[in-house]
Amino acid sequence: MADACGPLEEGRPSVIPFGMYRTRMRIRSRTVSNTANGQADTPVQATLIDLVGHVKPNANYREDGIVNFSEGAIDTIEIVIPYYEAILTGYLVEVYDSINNAQAITYYEIMSITDDRNKHQQLSLKCRVAERSILPIPSYSVSLQLVGGGGGGGGTNNNQYGGGGGGAGGMIQTVATLIVGTSYTATIGSGGAGASGTAKGIPGGDTLFTGVTTAFGGGGGGSGANNANKNGGNGGCGGGAGGFGANGLGGTGSQGLNGGNGNIADLAPYRGAGGGGINSAGANGNGASGVGGAGFPLFGVGIEVCCGGGGGGTMGSAVLAGGGLGGGGNGGYSSGGVAQPPTNGSPNTGGGGGGAGGTGSGTGTNTGANGGSGTIYLRYAGTSALGTYTGTQTVTIGGGFVTHQFLTSGVYTA
After folding, report:
1. Cβ 378 vs Cβ 173: under 8 Å
2. Which of 48, 57, 151, 321 can pair with 167 through a Cys bridge, CB separation 3.0 to 4.6 Å?
3. How far apart are the first and last CA of the chain?
């Protein structure tokens, strides 16, 4: 709390010796009756005055305003304050400092007073340490569920196989202690873009909260063409492989499960594989399979609210492959000889985008769907909301808990 010398914020003008540091303090009108070994009685009497004074650093009070009470430290200190006639020896000067995320109050007993009012309108106090108290800064415990952005679905052409579904965003659950008045940055991962033609879907963005492990974006779905883009991408959950042949491999999930492999048996309707979810892997692209992997409930209870994998695209069939529960998008398909687009992963679920499908013949380029953006859930016990958030959020209160859902990036001040 101390800072460099400058004009006093309170009291009369004062000339301060070089090297002293300004801080807030309080004079207490009590006489210390027992100072054996430098320890004062603990009862606190009435406050006499609050003011801004200056402290001369020594082995006890450093220039950064931290009091050092290691064994053998000097226990006397010089304090200069504006002139105040009611101050007597034996009174206490209460000085504030901070250390290790706590507020420290150090009491100094006034041993002697030098009256400099005629020249500088101030008093110079020689003091010795009386006692010290450490008051923890207010804080509260929160549960966090971080979800990365979902991966985009793979593209295809009408005369190729279905594109793979995008992998769901990864998920991290943890607990943290937030310090009241401290700001924490929340970064919400964006959903990855779906790919067109023979390209692989773009991975989702990462989601972060200050001091908490990152939830990674999901891997993109593989292309339906027989090229280097047919494998699903790695990510929080793995992207599904494109449907062409037995050698298309699903992506690996680092915080969830893998995407499905390609159409191993080369069975109609030639689907791409589903993207991986948190609770189950994406299905392989065999025949009527290709569904996205299942997602995860809010803090493990109830229905899935996030992290479902995207469904693989279907060729020449009106039977689509569904996305996984928890926001996964459905794969594209064909209806009446017209390619139908896949659906995006749901916003703020980290769901993977559906893979592109098509008619199974002719020309035409089809595009995979976008992954859903990520989110952060922050929950604590209580009946009223704490803190502020600069981004977009929803707040739900019930069952003895307050739950914030951060929808866009911002700063949460506890």
Report:
1. no
2. 151
3. 21
